[in-house]
Amino acid sequence: MIKTLLLCLLLTACGLTATGPSHNNDSVPRIHRVYNKLTAVKHVSKRNLISCHENTEYLFNTSLGVLCCESCPPGYVAENVGCTKENPKTSCKKCTLGKEYMDHYNYNTKCLRCRGCDEQHGMEIENNCTINQNTKCKCKTDFFCDSAPCHHCAPCDSCANGRVLEPCTDTKNTKCEETGESRQHFIIIGVIILLVLVIVVVFLLRKKRNNQQKKHTISTKHNIEMVPLKYPDIDLSSHIADIAEEMNLEDVLRLVRKLGVLSSRIEVVKSDNQNNAAEAKIKLLELWYQEKGITGAYGALITTLRNLHLRSAADKIEQKMSLLFQNNENLDRI
After folding, report:
1. What is the pLDDT of residue 176?
2. Which of 137, 156, 299, 306 is deepest in the core (most CB within 10 A)?
3. In what helix (H) or strand (E) does residue 77 lie, and over which residues does it extend?
């Protein structure tokens, strides 16, 4: 029994000893893996912290990492962008003199075109274009430009009296001294403007007055027309035929209806005189006159004709009646 217990203890001790080293061997690869990751992060951090000179270098990515390449100097541009770790210089090419330029460090692949000075806008060349500087323009003599940047120059003013307070420069126009003649010109212009205003005001006042007079005339005429005319009571029984001659049958029908003759009585007269329009007109007027009577008949006749827009017939009937009335007065005097 004791031997058996001792044997078990020995076996347990051997097992612990055997597992110990194996546990230590498993932990070694994990440590190496962590170390490798930290190393990789360190390399990445170093790559991201790379900084190049602001004006004369630029960043360039390669498969091996980020490099600082030297920029091309003024007057040159990059023939091929990029560089190597062994040769940090960029391959550059020169701009064409007189046509192109580049005025700063760069890694562009094309030069800038030289500017032209527009002679038609009063400009001329001050400094020619070089490979590292653009053309510099200026205003020609007797031209100026008061804006920046200047794109065209304007001609300088000349003083009419020859008195120059400040001469024309590249950036400022001529300043002339005012003379009595200049003031006279302003006075004359002011007087002309004042006269034009007076004429306009007078014209408007006259137009307003004429309009008021026209309105007054129209109003007066309207009032006159609105005053009922007083017609004499003339015996029309012997003049019915003369009155009928001044109208056609349709006008007579409109007239008698307007004067209040019943439609039934009108239809009887029309039926009795279907083939004789002249007789129908006379009969219709006689029918009206019989119903109306002499009092107010003549005035009603003329007024109704005018209301029906039969003014021509009304005027002719009035002329006839006036002649008859005058003849009757003359006979009475005799």
Report:
1. 85
2. 137
3. strand 76-80
Token code pair at residue 87: 């040769």
Tell me which H or E stretch contains 143: strand 143-144
Residue 256 lies in a domain: yes
**Residues 132, 76 share a domain:** no
The structure tokens listed for 175 are: 């300043």
The answer to whether the beta carbons of residues 223 and 236 sit under 8 Å apart is: no
Task: Evaluate the omega torsion of the peptide bond into residue 149 and state whether it is cis, within 30 degrees of 0.
Answer: yes
Read off the CATH number of the domain in which 305 is found: 1.10.533.10
Concatenating the DSSP letter of every residue in 300-311 gives HHHHHHHHTT-H
For the stretch 287-321, pLDDT in tens is 999 988 888 888 899 999 999 999 999 999 988 88
For the entire predicted model, the pTM comes to 0.39
Give per-residue pLDDT as tens, 140-161: 999 999 888 888 899 998 887 7
Residue closest to 131 by CA, chosen among 93, 96, 91: 96
Q: Domain check: are 308 and 269 in the same one?
A: yes
Query: Distance between CA 270 and CA 263 in Å, rounded?
Result: 10
Structurally, the chain folds into a number of domains equal to 3
**Residue (of 111, 30, 43) closest to 76 by Cα position:** 111
Residue-range definition of the domain harbouring residue 92: 57-113
H or E element that contains 158: none
Task: Mark out the alpha helices in the chain (DSSP H runs).
Answer: 2-48, 180-226, 240-245, 249-258, 263-272, 277-292, 297-307, 311-333
Do 249 and 273 sit in the same domain of this protein?
A: yes
Distance CA 171, CA 183 (A): 28
Q: Which of 50, 49, 85, 89 is nearest to 73 (CA)?
A: 89
Asked if residue 265 and residue 323 are part of one domain, the reply reads yes
User: Residue 94 is part of a domain; what is its CATH number?
Assistant: 2.10.50.10
> What value does the mean pLDDT of the chain take?
81
How far apart are the C-alpha atoms of 135 and 145, rounded to whole Å? 17
